[in-house]
Amino acid sequence: MYKTRLVKVGPYTLGTGHPVRVQSMCNTDTRDPQKTAEQINQLEAAGCEINRVAVPDMQAALALGEIKKQIHSPLVADIHFDYKLALEAIKQGVDKVRINPGNIGSIENTKEVVRACKDKGVAIRIGVNAGSVKYLKSVAGQVDLTDDKWAEVMVQEALEQANVLEQLNFHDVVVSLKSDDFYRTLKANELFAAQSDIPLHIGLTEAGSFLCGAVKSSIALGTLLQKGIGATIRVSLTEAPRLQVRTAYEILKALGLREYGPNLISCPTCGRTQVDVTGTVHALEERIYNDPELLQKATGLKIAVMGCVVNGPGEARDAAFGIAGGKGEGLYFEKGQTMFKLPQEQWVDFLVEKIKTWKK
User: Fold this and answer.
1) Alpha carbons 272 and 23: distance in angstroms, whole number
2) Which burial class, exposed, middle or buried, applies to 319 when counting CB atoms under 10 A from its CB (0-12, 13-18, 19+)?
């Protein structure tokens, strides 16, 4: 099991012995503080614990203070090339900056950023993506790297960048090593974790749209998390950020690392099914995940929606409660014991009320 140092980001302590925190990134224009804050508030309602925003210019940097006033979660400024943007972001009250010391100019620039971070208690994330490592510029696309070599190059650059900060006696550092390739991401994070105690922010970058991105991310991040690698997690889907957050929690929930919402089990249906299982499940999820109070009450509950009575109550006997369908109706059961029949049109409302009154 890998062990890491501890790093504070806002109210959260990241690293060994602490929960894996869920992170996302806004897709709004940071120069519009109102829209950006609104999206962060929506992400917070969905359970996002750390939020990152792009800072492409000074106007965006100057907007960070106004955004910070309107949100409750730690704010991360994503900075490239211009160290002055990092200094302004720190001045505006962000909790972490994402930079690469090697691409913000001279060592004096890095020293200035480090001094500001020390003064304000701001952490630094070094982000190394496979597609933007310095090695690519040196070979200009002339070398076809193996996946293992890709991983080695990414780790070497991350360690070099981290060493710059270590030499400046700055240790509140998080590193990310991301690729759109499963093996490169896996190998790079494993190699780094074996050589450094710096906590890792993990993700599969440019994962794609919902289905393919969720599958690839689940395999990659699930594998790393099972090895004890990962202090924060982001699922990078080409979808609404709220869906990224939900997917991240489902990964953590499936691994038994975090509880968030119910464990809702439902059958895939077959030719025996005479009720709308799919519609029921979707409607129930919509109600739960759009109501913070209901979501809190549902968290940790195992709830079943089954298509027929052939296997329903038996296969879901360890559920707190659920329904097994019949012809336009269903059998309501608690802990495997059937209780009474219920018309299908009442299922969702009934299950919602049962969540509200259930004593865990």
Assistant:
1) 42
2) buried
Give the three-state DSSP class for 86.
helix
Tell me the pLDDT tens digit for each residue of 295-324: 999 999 999 998 887 766 677 788 999 998
Report how far residue 97's alpha carbon sits from residue 174's, in angstroms, rounded to the nearest whole number.
Answer: 10
Domain ranges of the chain: 7-254, 263-357
pTM, two decimals, is 0.91
**Contact, 146 vs 154, CB < 8 A?**
no
Please check whether residue 89 is in contact with residue 113, taking contact to mean a CB–CB distance below 8 angstroms: no
Q: Which fold has domain 263-357?
A: Sulfite Reductase Hemoprotein; domain 1 (3.30.413)
The CATH fold of domain 7-254 = TIM Barrel (3.20.20)
The token pair at 298 is 């549902």
Looking only at the bridges linking them, the beta strands covering 21-25 and 50-54 are parallel
CA–CA separation, 36 and 60 (whole Å): 11
Tokens of residue 63, six digits = 């907007």
296 membership: H or E segment, kind and range: helix 292-298
In whole angstroms, give the CA distance from residue 122 to residue 97.
7
